[in-house]
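@channel sequence for tomorrow's demo:
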Amino acid sequence: MSPSKSEKDQAKNSDHKHDDVEGEHNEWKFRAPYKVHEKNNSNFKALYEGSCHCGRVQYQLSREKPLDAKYCHCSTCQVLHGAPFQWAAIFHKEDINFISGHHDLGWYESSEKTTRHKLPCKVSCAYCRAPIMDEGRRMILLFPSLIKFKTEEEKKNFDPTCHMFYSKRLLDIPDGLPKWSGMQNDSELIEDTPPEAHKKRKRDLEEKEEEEKKNSAKRQEK
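structure tokens (generated this afternoon):
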């Protein structure tokens, strides 16, 4: 949906340039997660701030804790981050407010290897190339290493809950967290996964199987 005149006027009144607001090529800036917010927006309470390496791209976060945080060891993350694994925190798209650098973003969709803004995609600073986030169809995965934590307590809010694609790992991490061979909750638990995680996985599978039986019985009754 195209931005309204009032939304464009608000953006201009917040010191955003005309060329950064007008035109179809700028409409994405008015949709979450790139929505242009007014300065001192009372509807957005900033709790954290983050930025890329060069500082051109800066953002705020309004949620105290991510919906989840995890380490991903898939080969795509390894290559694109130039690191053994990716540390990512999941947020709603409405939880982030870009305060600068809308025009300094670049996209990359790994399956088609295209730089078009095609979801899901990788988002990075177009100048220093620092990864900013992964944008999905409904959520975003932010990289906590870009956030300026003021205390250890703040950083602890972003502690990961598990490892994904651990079967692709480049190094062992015996930290006692659940370790999934592939996607979380959709693959096998391996290595030093805690016994309680194995038990929970078994319960989840049993409940899923029971639910499928109930649904099958209902379909047969119709």
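heads up for whoever presents: The beta strands are 48-51, 58-61, 68-72, 86-92, 96-100, 105-108, 121-125, 131-135, 139-142, 163-164.
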